[in-house]
Amino acid sequence: MSKITTELLLERAVPRSTRLRKIETLNLSKLQLKTGDLDPRLFSRLRHLQKLDLSDNLLDKFPNSLTLPDLRVLNCNNNKLEDVTALKQFPLLEELTYENNVYLTLNDDYKVMFLLQNLRLLNGKDITKLANHVRRVNSRKLTSKVTAHWEKFFRDQLPEKYTAEQVKSIRKKFLKSVQTNVVYGPSSLSEFTRWRVKMIAEEFLAYSLGLELNSDTEPEEKMEENEEESTESPREAAEDVAQVGDFSSYISNVTVTRSKRKRNHSKSSPGKKKSKTQANTKEEAAEDVSAEPLHFLQCHSKGNSREDFKTQLWSCVFEPVLDSGARKDPIVSSSRTVATCGGESVCLIDCETGTVLKKYKVATEEFFSVAWTTLTMVISDSRKKAHNILAAAGRRGIVKLIHVAADFCYGEIKAHKKPIATVCFSPTQETHLFTASYDKRIALWDIGIPDCDYNFKASQLLVLETASIPLRIALVPTCPEQYLLAGCEDGCFAWNIQLDKGQKSRPFEAIFQFPGEESMTTSHRVDGLAFLNDDVVVSKSSKPGCIYLWSWSRSFDAKGKGCQQTMSAVILAELEWSTTDMSYLTLSTCPAKEYVFCGDEKGSVWMYNLSNYSTAWGSPKGKRSERRISPTQILQWPELRVNGEQPPEILVNNVVADPAFTYLVVLTSVNITAIWKKS
């Protein structure tokens, strides 16, 4: 039985009414309504309805025949809408809001601006000027491009006397070709452009060849992002995006004092002098990296406010290249596109141009971690194609699964009842996702592979019990299906994760003891953890200035009997780092270039080139370096002024390089993403 009845409509009218045809304002918010509850036969009696509030419901789309001929104001905030094209049935609509519908993007904004000729306000913003541009200038340029494409490639393919079969064949080829090759505007609007190009092409064919317009709703063929090229200059593209206000990414009125960018050669902590032996060692002679800051972005602001310098940024990871054989060659396994998260949003950024390509927002979320995987999905005609999928998780304990090329968040996994600190995918099993939570559990999920309608089934395979909150996790490179390491609030632990053991819930198998830790009661928080190569682990503890490099194979005794044994970490070296006692400033590695990176409490990035040490560490009897290894270089935060003032205290929460170490992405505590490039 439908939730909506005549009695309910009369009761929810503002003011209450005795006749449906007299209702002008109707509030149907917070009723848990689904699309099937909107009965067209009942709504067709609301002939004079002008204002409709459907916020805070569960609508995923609109029925195509609601017949509200006088509707002027529509509120659809906080639903699950996936498509906006059905809104064209309300031609008099002047004000429309659909904020906090996570599946809707900037492309949908442009669609409604084109479809609704009377629309003035969209999500509370005056879009009159931009809408006129979309309807006129944009349409004119696309029409010109579509016509030129026909003239150049298809006009001569039709004989003077053609059959219906020939027309059908050329129509199919033309629609596919024109959507692939006609591009215009920034790549963030590629879906809207393809949608308009298809529409214009069908109108052109109808006019030129007398064909009927295709009114079906079959999905468009999706073009991969790397097949597109913008026909506008970067400035024009940025202006096109900025008018909607969705991507206020560049910090306005920024002044950077270049003298503060100078490269710092290997140096100790502030106030300490290097000894003569430290300054002249062979290892210290490693060449400095020449790097310059490219971009400073503020793309995670709450409510897109340029005054937001409080949102913390936590995690970033570079997108894998689909055709690179990513699991074989790390140097070519990454693009220049990086996913970043913090606050209520996840952003995809082109590191070279500084363009925010896509942005996903969940108003009630605070994202802590993102991870990529590549799934081989079935597309049209039962063909298979590899697509990159992004997993994002945070305070709500929910994992969002995003098909980036399709601009579509296709599902979610309610993984934990408490926040998720970090996530990572298995490098060998593309659907296996680990989630580490504040509930003191690490779960292994099989996220499944979505079908062509994005139906998928996720299942929990394993639960690892931890003694404290897990902060960082890493799979052992030589046996990623057998062992997992986790840095936790009270130490570093290891688990056996083999799925053929039968035991679904498992305690840890080992805890690693570091210098100065006589027992678990004196263990330190491990808030940084990564592998430098197949054997060397880099871990950072809450002990001031302490980053250890240690051997996994020489520390872990797989033949040891029983669980929860304490094992001494075989230390290979200790890295000199800031003396701060501040926690959660995590580290990362670039294995292909043998680098370690870690930010500090002053906005600086400490970089360690360890290529001169790896051979010695790799030998069976490799000895521990007797002295602390100083950073090869420290990149200092430039003197950045925003509106004439310096931002508040800057902590570097995370810093990540792409596998080829071309770009370095720095995430801060003040809502600034800094991108450096090696020159």
Automatic annotation (TrEMBL):
Protein name: Leucine-rich repeat and WD repeat-containing protein 1
Domain of life: Eukaryota
One family name in Pfam for this protein: WD_LRWD1
Region of interest called Disordered, as start-end residue ranges on this chain: 215-239, 257-289
Keyword terms, alphabetized: Centromere, Chromatin regulator, Chromosome, Cytoplasm, Cytoskeleton, DNA replication, Kinetochore, Leucine-rich repeat, Nucleus, Repeat, Telomere, WD repeat
UniProt biased composition (Basic residues): 258-276
Residue ranges annotated for the Leucine-rich repeat and WD repeat-containing protein 1 LRR domain, each copy included: 7-200
Start and stop residues of the WD repeats: 413-447
GO biological process: chromatin organization; DNA replication; establishment of protein localization to chromatin
Lineage, opening ranks: Eukaryota, Metazoa, Chordata, Craniata, Vertebrata
Family recorded in the similarity comment: Belongs to the LRWD1 family.
Annotated compartments: Chromosome, Centromere, Kinetochore; Chromosome, Telomere; Cytoplasm, Cytoskeleton, Microtubule organizing center, Centrosome; Nucleus
Species this chain originates from: Leptocoma aspasia
Record's compositionally biased regions (Acidic residues): 215-231
Gene Ontology CC, one term: nuclear origin of replication recognition complex
Domain Leucine-rich repeat and WD repeat-containing protein 1 WD: 290-678
GO molecular function: chromatin binding
SUPFAM superfamilies given in the database record: L domain-like (SSF52058), WD40 repeat-like (SSF50978)
